[in-house]
Design brief:
- The protein has 494 residues and is α+β, with helices and mostly antiparallel strands.
- It has 2 domains: 144 residues, 2-Layer Sandwich (Uridine Diphospho-n-acetylenolpyruvylglucosamine Reductase, domain 3), CATH 3.30.465; 202 residues, FAD-linked oxidase, cap domain/gating helix (Vanillyl-alcohol Oxidase, Chain A, domain 3, 3-Layer(aba) Sandwich), CATH 3.40.462.40.
- 32% of the residues lie in helices and 21% in strands.
- It is built from 12 helices and 19 strands.
- The chain has a 7-stranded antiparallel beta sheet with strand order 16-13-15-14-18-19-17, sandwiched between helices. Strands 5, 6, 7, 8, 9 and 12 form a 6-stranded antiparallel beta sheet that branches. It has a 4-stranded mixed beta sheet with strand order 1-2-4-3, with helices on one face.
- The chain is globular.
- The model has no long low-confidence stretch (mean pLDDT 95).
- The structure holds flavin-adenine dinucleotide.
- Flavin-adenine dinucleotide binds next to strand 3, helix 3 and strand 12.
- Flavin-adenine dinucleotide (FAD) binds next to strand 3, helix 3 and strand 12.
Length: 494
């Protein structure tokens, strides 16, 4: 184990991408095994010293930014086990928390498998993606990280190590009562309601739930994930992708609706239209992209990036099906793009990923932080949410963009203030969006988690009673109250 006490040596552990500032930290512990994690936590519990778990710091909401105490960094828990095949062609592999997502994805492909979760930021650690239940553009087809985790090794704050295979420790109604490796685990699940959308805020809670799901998405507040077994699919033959441009937003939205209907009707099909990813760019996003990619068509008011799995026999027929749908929905067939080579596919990915970087350049010129939403709403409320965005933003003085995972009704609305005053005004509008999304049965966070930045919105979503219900479970697993202080809950609540 490495222990760093000199602040100059651990500056890179004090932030993530939220811009939040860290409090005083007395040291960074970098264990190399679950046993060392257990020892660190046991001693910290005895001292009552707060512990913030650090993944790779790509989080956007400040979960790994410590308020005080010590940091437990997972960098050296970085081993991947042997890839195991099942008779049906799927697979499974054990992976430690500090393995990079991109390493797991690449090694899975090299071994003939696909690890389906694909958050855009591939430099996240697997532990971080499990702790935040990360998702990405392919979650339209494959769901969020949760679906792919089949076993977790978690260390509780008193040093107890729990190995939790999926399916083994399940609540009876609202009650858990299991003996796990000699420790009795008995509690009532939090009495909170879950929105019926992709969701990454607060603890998972559902009658009859699996204990593993409580720890997935708990953002380092219930235990330290040291290792996981994850499920793998057989490596697909190939994907093809396209970027379709539309002159009217209403036509684009009708196109998305048709793609979703067809994809639901043809799950997993390699012969019928069936999207893996569906991503949206609004007019203002295209304005940013045009600065770098002048080939972006002038008459486009919005665009959709899509991806579909196929094989060499079905590719041509599928290209035709997508093209017909574009024409039927009054898209711009002459100006839209299909990737017909690996180089073009890479270009589409570059085009899609360039937007956040272009936005960040704009922000750093103005020296202000963006106001960024992570809201998702139920499918039948999506057009209402879009109308709310336009009602507040169309006539506003702000520069703004909306883009993201339209397949899951999950868009990132970004207000890009040009001054501190605009930042304050933008925050008020953002609050309106949160209020409307909650009224529509949505979530404050579909993928980034609550962290520290979104605690006030978690209070709006769950209310005082809902947060207290989750805090009750947190106290059960972390009686010393040392893990992830200030994350998910207001510090004063614990
Ligand atoms: C450009 C960009 C694009 C992004 N795109 C996406 C996207 O498409 N989808 C998405 O979901 N997210 C996205 N993110 C957010 C981020 O990448 C994810 O939240 C990611 O899962 C964080 O992983 P990390 O290892 O960096 O965790 P960190 O930022 O280090 O930590 C995140 C939280 O998890 C906790 N934690 C970390 N490791 C453990 C562990 N082993 N045990 C217990 N708790 C732990 C931390 O305490 C903290 O609360 C994006 C971020 C950026 C900067």
């Amino acid at each position: 184990m490495i222990v760093k006490r000199n602040p100059d040596e651990f500056l890179n552990y004090l932030n993530d991408t939220s811009g939040l500032k860290a409090g005083p930290v007395s040291g960074v512990y970098i264990p190399e095994s679950t046993e060392e994690v257990s020892e660190i936590l046991k001693q910290a519990s005895e001292r009552g010293e707060p512990v913030t778990v650090s993944g790779n710091g790509t989080g956007t909401t400040g979960g790994r930014v410590p308020n005080s105490g010590i940091i437990l960094a997972t960098d050296r828990l970085n081993r991947i086990g042997r890839f195991m095949s099942h008779p049906d062609g799927t697979g499974e592999v054990s992976v430690q928390a500090g393995v990079l997502l991109k390493t797991l994805q690449t090694e899975a492909l090299e071994n003939g498998f696909l690890y389906p979760p694909d958050p855009t930021e591939r430099n996240a650690f697997i532990g971080g993606t499990i702790a935040t239940n990360a998702s990405g553009s392919r979650s339209f087809r494959y769901g969020a990280t949760r679906r792919w985790v089949s076993e977790l090794t978690v260390v509780l704050s008193d040093g107890t190590v729990l190995i939790i295979p999926r399916g083994q420790y399940v609540a009876s109604g609202n009650e858990f009562d299991s003996s796990i490796q000699g420790r009795r685990v008995r509690f009532t699940i939090p009495d909170i309601s879950m929105p019926g959308v992709k969701h990454a805020a607060g603890y998972f809670s559902e009658p009859g739930m699996d204990l593993i799901d409580l720890f997935i998405g708990s953002e380092g507040t219930l235990g330290v994930i040291t290792e996981a077994k994850v499920k793998l699919l057989p490596k697909p033959s190939r994907f093809f992708s396209g970027i379709f441009f539309f002159p009217e937003e209403q036509d684009l939205l009708a196109f998305v609706s048709s793609v979703k209907t067809e994809s639901v009707a043809n799950p997993g099909s390699l012969t019928r239209l069936n999207a893996t990813s569906l991503e949206y760019f609004d007019l203002n996003s295209l304005g940013f992209l045009k600065e770098k990619y002048p080939q972006t068509p002038d008459q486009a008011k919005g665009a959709i990036y899509f991806e579909q799995e196929c094989n060499p026999e079905t590719e041509d027929g599928l290209l035709e099906a997508w093209f017909d749908l574009l024409v039927r929905h009054n898209g711009l067939p002459e100006s839209s793009w299909f990737a017909q080579s690996a180089r073009e596919e890479d270009f589409f990915k570059e085009y899609r990923h360039a937007l956040p970087a272009l936005i960040n350049e704009f922000l750093s010129k103005n020296g202000v932080r963006k106001i960024s939403s992570d809201i998702a709403v139920p499918e039948n409320k999506f057009s209402e949410m879009m109308a709310v965005y336009h009602r507040f933003l169309d006539e506003s003085p702000f520069k703004w963009v909306i883009f993201g995972h339209i397949g899951d009704q999950h868009l990132h609305m970004n207000i890009l203030p040009r001054s501190a005053e605009e930042h304050d005004q933008g925050k008020l509008i953002y609050l309106e969006f949160i209020r409307e999304a909650l009224k529509l049965g949505g979530t404050i966070s579909a993928e980034h988690g609550v962290g520290k930045l979104k605690v006030p919105y978690a209070e709006m979503m769950f209310g005082d009673s809902g947060l207290k219900e989750m805090a009750r479970v947190k106290r059960y697993f972390d009686p010393a109250g040392i893990l992830g202080r200030g994350t998910v809950f207001p510090e004063k609540m614990l």
